[in-house]
Amino acid sequence: MPHRDPGSVGVVETQTVRLFSDDQPLVLADGSTLGPVDVAYETYGTLSDARDNAVFVCHALTGDAHAAGYAPGAIRPGWWDNLIGPGRPLDTDRFFVISANLLGGCQGTTGPSTLNPDTGRAYGLSFPLLQMSDFVTVHRALVQHLGIARLLAAVGGSLGGMQVLEWATSHPDDLANAVVVAASSRLNAQNIAFSAVARKAIMSDPDFRDGDYAELGVNPDRGLATARMMAHITYVSEDALSAKFGRTPQGEAIRPGFDVDFAVESYLDHQGEAFLGRFDALSYLYLTRVMDYFDPFADTSALAGLAKRPVKFLVVSFDSDWRFSTQHSRRIVRHLERAQLPVTFREIKSPWGHDSFLLDGAQYHATLTAFFDRALEEGL
Amino acid sequence: MPHRDPGSVGVVETQTVRLFSDDQPLVLADGSTLGPVDVAYETYGTLSDARDNAVFVCHALTGDAHAAGYAPGAIRPGWWDNLIGPGRPLDTDRFFVISANLLGGCQGTTGPSTLNPDTGRAYGLSFPLLQMSDFVTVHRALVQHLGIARLLAAVGGSLGGMQVLEWATSHPDDLANAVVVAASSRLNAQNIAFSAVARKAIMSDPDFRDGDYAELGVNPDRGLATARMMAHITYVSEDALSAKFGRTPQGEAIRPGFDVDFAVESYLDHQGEAFLGRFDALSYLYLTRVMDYFDPFADTSALAGLAKRPVKFLVVSFDSDWRFSTQHSRRIVRHLERAQLPVTFREIKSPWGHDSFLLDGAQYHATLTAFFDRALEEGL
Question: What is the ipTM of this complex?
């Protein structure tokens, strides 16, 4: 029984709250409005009477609100379960942890596959283009809804780390500590290129139907699976793939053909197939585009006032991460240091590539534990 | 006028020769037969009276017989024109250079898009699966047809280098020197993974039609373009993409959307589109699968007899190549050295990644020139 696992938060159901309405819509960074906006979220642990132990967890591109514990009847726990729970780095006996699905997502928060109440049809490509600050606006509203004036910390990996960076630099009063893992403050040409090909695969699938696939009863499965398979290669280090699969044939012996001959092909196929059941093609387009445009240090004057009440940063990279290499993290650190902000940087040795941020490497978790413990000691 | 270029071999027309017939078919490595087999090829320079100055050029995955000079009316020269011509490393005033399209290709040599005379329809997926040694068998037949008993050298990059490696280790009497550039003796899991996703993109395109697209009057353009775009990312180094494109917007200003916003996207789009006009989806499947299975050192006893009349090897890698990194070349060198074969290894500094083998870097070309000059001096 999963909830007997002593380190687990147990069974958790995702909740949904309407944070913006037709009358009081969300105002997006580009000035347009969107409403209503529902947000799917989960919480773990107990908010202290002083409301000073809240940590916001930001998910990566294909994550969701279900970060920890087990959905009713589920066998597998949430995507960051190894981080969150009694005795874990985000110790739910001491921290109150919040996790919410992103705006534009497809796991309960309003996104392009949501019905547009004005038309009675899914938004599709009429959903507004988003910016990183829109993610923050929505999650700030959730924090406010939960009655929390200031977060002890926000933490996220990959896109989640980028959201944390945006939050901490645009609204420094909102949080005391920020943990930015395996993230980037500016995608390079190769990063953009991989995302562009993924979007190409999706949008050139005949079943994409200009984004209206849902109401036409189809789904760009082939394009979405191809996109996921390619992206997955970039999440794992070359050495990790070699160690895990090498050139092992999938069947008993190699029988050449164009189907799945090698174990690594079977693995990727499975990654692609499993993804179809849980993710939406339009969300993939919208969220990757937000990453492409993110560039919070383009205007360095924006950082000028931050040193007055500085957020304490922990920036973490993994030495085998080739999607967002340590170079990306060093750039973040450089800009934060120039802005006179306190920043601790760790490059963690890990063979697993970008996905290391989801794993429970000893050095990695020890680094996070030390940072969160110190944060709790120092308080808001 | 291109043919006024003093370093160019001038206007060259691809020739085609039938090397295997219905009666005397090609016997493939797996025991099956194929006939007729036509081979497209070009030659540059003049075969010496002693027939001792012939160099065979092996092309990469998407190359063709047209390595040098200008096709009639063409503005752009062949794919390895910077290497081949008067005064160039393969100096056509001294060397007789042969370049031929691969078996299974789509540029004049028999391949899956060729009409099967037995059925009157294109082979499609009924074309036999190939092995690297089949490429060699066909090109050996061409060399024999040209009246050449022994090659002074064979040279190739990427898949071309792999063919050279196969040729030199399976038929060492055929050649005196072998130049293996940016190649691999065994694809790793990541290499296979990228090829698997490329094939997935092609085969999941509804217009692939189980390989019968040609006779149905369609073409899996979307899948093939996606495959090419993704592969192209792996041919270029991260730094080269950054240096060339950075985050430059494609238009005058960034107008966010899901089309081509960044210059790197436009570039990849163009790579995908241009590819459609010159390459066939089935050839992509067949040739990449040959690469996946290539593993000439799996049985090291096969190398035992090679030291008797040793082929002299030059193995070249590029430090920014992440498709076939220097690690791949070092593995080749290690096996050749264990077999007591003379091998010179150079890791060339080049910022351009895998595609460096097609460029005319000074250190690279100086290395090739020295090797070819020495080869000519020593003779057969």
Answer: 0.94
Tell me the C-alpha distance between A111 and B112, whole Å: 45
Least CB–CB distance from B203: residue in A196, A203, A258: A258
Q: Looking at B81, B91, B205, B321, which residue is catalytic? A: B321
pLDDT digits over A318-334, tens only?
999 999 999 999 999 99
Q: In Å, how far is B29's CA from the nearest CA of chain A? A: 13
Whether the pLDDT of residue A2 is over 50: the answer is no
Taking CA atoms, what residue in B is nearest to A263? B189
* H-helix segments, A8-158: 132-145
Cα(A209)–Cα(A243) distance, rounded to whole angstroms?
A: 40
- A190 to B289: CB separation less than 8 angstroms, yes or no: no
Instruction: Among A267, A289, A311, give the residue marking a domain's end.
Output: A289
Number of domains chain A is built from: 2
Residues B182 and B196 in one domain: no
Inter-chain residue contact A190 with B265, CB threshold 8 Å: no
Residue B264 clears pLDDT 70, i.e. is over it: yes
Q: Does B188 sit within 8 Å of A247, measured CB to CB?
A: yes
Residue in A199, A222, A230 nearest the CB of B258: A199
- Do B366 and B329 lie in one domain? The reply is yes
Residues A182 and A210 in one domain: no
Across the interface, of A196, A230, A262, the residue whose CB is closest to B292 is: A262
- B317 catalytic residue (yes or no): no
Tell me how many degrees the CA angle A322-A328-A332 measures, rounded to the nearest 5.
Answer: 155
How far the first Cα of chain B sits from its last, in Å, is 37
The DSSP result for A282-294, as a single string, is: HHHHHHHHHHHH-
Q: How confident is the model at residue A304 (pLDDT cuts 50, 70, 90)?
A: confident
As a whole number of angstroms, the distance between CA B182 and CA A317 comes to 30
B197/A246 CB distance under 8 A: no
Q: Which of A129, A188, A222 has the CB atom closest to B204's CB atom?
A: A222
Based on the number of CB atoms within 10 Å of its own CB, is A379 exposed (0-12), middle (13-18) or buried (19 or more)?
A: exposed
Q: Which residue of chain B has the CA closest to A186?
A: B247
Percent of all residues in chain A with a pLDDT value above 70, rounded to a whole number: 98
Q: Give yes or no for residue A305 having a pLDDT over 90.
A: no
Please state the φ and ψ torsions of residue B87, each to the nearest 5 degrees. 85, -5
Nearest CA in chain B to A190: B238
Global confidence as pTM: 0.95
Measure the CA–CA gap between A203 and A209, rounded to whole angstroms.
Answer: 8
Average pLDDT over residues B262-273: 95
pLDDT average, residue stretch A7-30: 96
Same domain, B306 and B273: no
Same structural domain, A202 and A164:
no
Q: Catalytic residues of A, which ones?
A: 158, 321, 354
Q: How far is CA A45 from CA A154, A352, A378, B101, in A?
A: 16, 30, 19, 66
pLDDT digits (tens, 9 = 90+) for A162-217: 999 999 999 999 999 999 999 999 999 999 999 999 999 999 999 999 999 999 99
Residue of B8, B133, B158, B237 marked active site: B158
At A1 the pLDDT is: 44
Whether residues B226 and B80 fall in one domain: no
Q: How far is A215 from chain B (nearest CA, A)?
A: 21
Q: Indicate the range of A1-10, B38-47, B311-320 predicted with least confidence.
A: A1-10
Chain A partners of B205 at a C-beta cutoff of 8 Å? 222
Judge if B225 and B312 occupy the same domain: no
CB contact under 8 A, B292 and A204: no
Give me the CATH number covering residue B197. 1.10.1740.110
Domain boundary among A289, A323, A353: A289
Q: How confident is the model at residue B300 (pLDDT cuts 50, 70, 90)?
A: confident
- Note down the domain range covering B280: 191-289
Give residue B31's region: left, alpha or beta (phi > 0; psi -120 to 50).
left
The nearest CA of chain B is from the CA of A5 a distance in Å of 35
Chain B, nearest residue to A224 by Cα: B201
